[in-house]
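Below is a filled-in request sheet from our internal design queue. Each sheet records the structural input a requester submitted and the sequence that came back. We keep these sheets so that new team members can see what a complete request looks like end to end.

REQUESTER: design group, bay 2
PRIORITY: normal
MODE: inverse folding
CHAIN LENGTH: 121
BACKBONE (tokenized):
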């Protein structure tokens, strides 16, 4: 089960990133670095949502475990990994924001957000 989820997440991230790489590949090194930073900043909200869902899942399992020591230990591990994942993502976002603003790769960076396309008829 875990292997299938891993493969599915790799495929989903690849499909999300691939068009950015294929259609917008720059000609110089500064453009390549800027593109990689933009891709990283686009992926961070998705990964943050996954880490937050893992944390919430751990909270739910912790509440449901009530007395079962093994379940409590497993749910605490989910809580810890969710917090660690969020911390790492915020740290990576800060480093990318620093690189982008201080070294002139396209200005400042705002708060990461998932952008939904407006579908109209």
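RETURNED SEQUENCE:
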């Amino acid at each position: 089960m875990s292997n299938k989820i891993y493969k599915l997440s790799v495929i989903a991230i690849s499909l999300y990133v691939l068009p950015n790489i294929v259609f917008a590949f720059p000609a110089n090194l500064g453009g390549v670095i800027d593109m990689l930073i933009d891709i990283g900043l686009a992926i961070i909200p998705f990964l943050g949502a996954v880490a937050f869902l893992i944390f919430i899942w751990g909270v739910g399992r912790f509440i449901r475990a009530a007395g079962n020591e093994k379940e409590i230990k497993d749910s605490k591990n989910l809580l810890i990994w969710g917090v660690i994942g969020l911390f790492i993502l915020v740290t990576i976002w800060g480093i990318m924001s620093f690189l982008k603003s201080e070294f002139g790769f396209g200005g400042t960076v705002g708060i990461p957000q998932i952008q939904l396309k407006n579908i109209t008829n």
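SHEET NOTES:
- The mean pLDDT is 77.
- Helices lie at 2-23, 29-65, 69-102.
FILED BY: M.R.
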